[in-house]
Amino acid sequence: MTHPLADRFDGTAEILAEIAARTPDARDYHGETHRTVDAHHPKRLRVVITDVMAETATSKTFRIAAADSVPLPPFLAGQYVNVFIDGTSRPFAISSSPARLDHYDLTVRRVPGGRISNLLIDTVEVGHRLSTTGPLGTFHHNPLFHGDDVVFLAGGSGVAPALSMIRDIVDNELGRGFHLVYGSRSADDIIFRDELDAIAAAQPNIRVDYVIAEPNPGWHGRTGFLSAETITALVGELRDRMVYVCGPQALYPYALQQLTSLGQRRRRIRFEANGAPADPTAQPHWPAGLDATEEVTVTVGATSFRTPRNRPLLDALEDQGIRPEAACRSGECSLCRVRICKGEIHNAEEARLRLSDSRFGYTHSCVAYPLTDVEIDI
After folding, report:
1. Single pTM value for the model
2. Which of 104, 168, 201, 312 has the fewest CB atoms nearer than 10 Å to its CB?
3. How many CB atoms lie within 10 A of CB 301?
4. Cα angle at 351 between 350 and 357, to 5 degrees?
5. Contacts with 147 (C-beta within 8 Å, 6 or more apart), sequence order
């Protein structure tokens, strides 16, 4: 259809004739766009375990490759994938380099009583097939805001994203300064120690320091916790450098307290999302005097079941075979978002809710706890 104003322009007839003479473009641009998006941001990956590497007595690295032998999607150092197994899922940081997309390395540390970490470490072998999400997460270096001289405080398996960032610097020859301060229970618990030492010795812009909480005889390095005194002794003045923090949940409030006592601004501290709170009742807005172990009724459509108040809604739903989409399981990604139609819930401090969620009744089910009988819509 010719535009009604077309004949007001000189040369209109010639241009329209040239367009009419063109060979129609039969390319499927819509399909090509979808295939490109799916290749870079897939909802699911089918992967196979190609290697299992024992790191310490309590940790292993599982190397995964695409089951169909194609390159895995690109990712940013510090991101994670969510692994689906045993009727549930858990996010694990990628510890390998973004420069090598023939595989991802997922480093898992045994959690006492942990359902999935123990299952993976004790039963998963080479050849085992799994389903994961594509790479996700916001815990990565942003060159526009984070600067070229950063500090990373790691505890336990929280060193996995740090190693990915370090490997990224080495493989891509980035001119970024990186100082890792890695806290472990004992020297035997230090994951990737040989590689970290070798990289630090060869790369003048990368420094690695270890802090041991329970030193064995013969340990001559720093001991204790990642305190303000230890941070200052090892790193010097922070000078508002970006500080990343990743490790067990107990590290986060402690690290925040220590860093802010040194004058570090909160917006220059980045925490990796790391699970639901171990004890939601310890949070100040948990209703006083409410029995956390008492069961309430959760109703989803025609299904009703009982669950204790201190069990996250997402876990309770999965127990019943109801599986909302999920990824971070830490209140950040919002994939497990559900609507509370009736009843009251406790939103943990970890929940990164939208401003409109409270108005319309939405919550992140991975860090939401039913305080009364509730009806939800998935």
Report:
1. 0.89
2. 201
3. 10
4. 160
5. 241, 242
